[in-house]
Write a structure and sequence with these properties.
- α5 packs across α6.
- It contains 21 helices and 15 strands.
- It has 474 residues and is α/β, with parallel strands linked by helices.
- The strands form three sheets. The protein has a seven-stranded parallel β-sheet, sandwiched between helices.
- The model has no long low-confidence stretch (mean pLDDT 94).
- The N and C termini lie close together (9 Å).
- The protein is globular and about 60 Å long.
- The protein binds uridine-5'-diphosphate-xylopyranose.
- Uridine-5'-diphosphate-xylopyranose binds next to α1, α16 and α17.
């Protein structure tokens, strides 16, 4: 695009949870590495929790109040309260903040606002500041399209479900063959939000409104690469003319950012698990098990995973974070006798440096909830997966990992320890299917490397995005 160039200053504001903060922070680092001034805004609560991260030249951290009190933070519906509170209270503090920073000497004024999903109210901040806005939507392109189409699924009467029997009577297998750019998929795979009986379902409405409101932004940024999702990206281009596919973000960071001055993890990483992996002599012999930052398992589901892993006889590293089990429980919820039964071949961590773990030579498989960040990190590491989706976009990620990319094995929705053990054995035991998955994973890893390397699609798209940010009046 022709136009006068200026110093670009991006103010980034993610929804305050790990699944949004992590990719937004990576984008911030990438923009900074290309000469863009960055202001990364957390909520005050997370800013304290992250031990007040220090910025550096051209990269500053700021924070705004989230409007919650202690009772809100302890409530089971705290994420809903947080969502509503941000919408209600954060516009003015963000506008003020941008104006204050812009008034400082040696700092260019804020020239664009970049948000993650679920904080679409902040598009209004950009409008008030009269600067362009961009949304980094944290799912796959197909996950985004499925969320857009929730509106049509409601209009066409697929959801809300008529009654509880529809959850188990095969209705969720109804073929959906009318979403442009996608193969025929099961209704149940489109999104977890179709599984509601509530005609006023808050989650369903919020998700589709948030996705559809991205049309108000100047551009849509996705943590994916063209080769991985070409059909769906082609179809999306008709509706969203400016899509920047710059992922996998973990790979792009590795290629383009020399040095990251701060670790920004809401949980402390257990360094001992790396030493444990170092001590495993056999390459690709360890299964890594993690369900991301939000999933909550019932004690029964935890027990099926635990006893399935125990029965498999393969070494594994399992992240059991506080809150993984309902009622804010973690390792204390593991079944009696499990630790003794898996002694010498299991390491349990509360949190780990996942990207490093997946790229460790000892790791050969990933039992995952199919969150999009985890999926892209696994693709970049060339590690095939066992998929146990449970929420939001995770079902469609699993569908694509298993049926389109050939790098995943799916667990049934009704979790059974026998199947967990059989899938682990199948993946880690090196049978025909496992070999094929490993070959496919190696191909996708190479494509991810190529996309994020010089001349690759994601590499060029990042440069294109930065140019766009520099053009005056864009
Ligand atoms: C959320 C949604 O649940 C998911 O469906 C959506 O695709 C993205 O946003 P989350 O459930 O946290 O994310 O899963 P995921 O997207 O996989 O993100 C988890 C992040 O935490 C990854 O970047 C992973 O590397 C990191 N992680 C996880 C760690 O750094 N250490 C750990 O021990 C576990």
């Amino acid at each position: 695009m022709e136009g006068k160039k200026r110093a670009a200053h991006a103010m980034l504001f993610p929804f305050p949870c790990s699944g949004h903060i992590n990719p937004t922070l990576k984008l911030a680092e990438l923009l900074h590495s290309r000469g863009v001034h960055v202001t990364f805004v957390n909520t005050d609560h997370n800013h304290q929790r992250l031990r007040r991260p220090r910025g550096r030249e051209g990269f500053r951290f700021e924070s705004v109040p989230d409007g919650l009190d202690d009772a809100d933070r302890a409530a089971p519906d705290r994420t809903v309260r947080l969502y509503l509170s941000l919408r209600k209270t954060c516009t003015a503090p963000l506008v003020d903040l941008a104006r204050r920073i812009g008034a400082r000497q040696r700092v260019p004024p804020v020239t664009c606002v970049v948000i993650s999903g679920l904080v679409s109210f902040a598009l209004g901040v950009a409008e008030e500041l009269r600067v362009p806005s961009f949304v980094l939507w944290g799912t796959s392109a197909v996950g985004f399209v499925c969320t857009l189409r929730l509106r049509q699924l409601v209009q066409r009467g697929y959801t809300p479900l008529k009654d509880e029997t529809y959850l188990t009577n095969g209705y969720l297998d109804t073929p959906i063959d009318w979403i442009a750019g996608m193969p025929t998929v099961r209704l149940g795979d489109v999104s977890s939000f179709v599984r509601t009986l509530d005609p006023t379902s808050f989650a369903l409405r919020v998700e589709e409104e948030e996705a559809n409101s991205c049309a108000r932004a100047q551009g849509l940024i996705l943590n994916t690469f063209d080769e991985l999702e070409s059909d769906v990206l082609d179809a999306l281009g008709d509706e969203f003319p400016r899509v920047y596919t710059i992922g996998p973000l973990a790979a792009a960071m590795h290629r383009r950012v020399d040095h990251v001055a701060h670790g920004l993890s809401l949980w402390e990483e257990d360094a001992a698990c790396m030493a444990w992996l170092d001590a495993r002599p056999e390459p690709r012999s360890v299964l890594y098990v993690s369900f991301g930052s939000l999933a909550v398992l019932s004690p029964g589901q935890l027990a099926e995973f635990a006893w399935g892993l125990a029965a498999s006889n393969r070494p594994f590293l399992w992240v059991v974070r506080p809150g993984l089990v309902g009622g804010d429980r973690g390792m204390d919820a593991l079944p009696d006798g499990f630790v003794a039964a898996t002694k010498n071949r299991c390491f349990i961590a509360e949190w780990c440096a996942q990207e490093q773990v997946l790229r460790h030579r000892a790791v050969g498989g990933f039992l995952t909830h199919s969150g999009w960040n985890s999926t892209t990190e696994s693709i970049w590491a060339g590690v095939p997966m066992i998929c146990a989706p449970g929420f939001a976009d995770q079902y469609i990620n699993c569908r694509y990992a298993c049926a389109e990319w050939g790098i995943g094995l799916r667990l049934d929705e009704e979790l059974r320890r026998e199947q967990v053990a059989a899938h682990v054995e199948e993946l880690m035991g090196g049978g025909k299917k496992a070999e094929e998955m490993k070959r496919n994973a190696a191909v996708w890893k190479a494509r991810a490397e190529a996309a994020t390397g010089p001349g690759g699609s994601a590499y060029e798209n990042l440069d294109r995005l930065v140019e766009e940010l520099r053009v005056e009046g864009s």
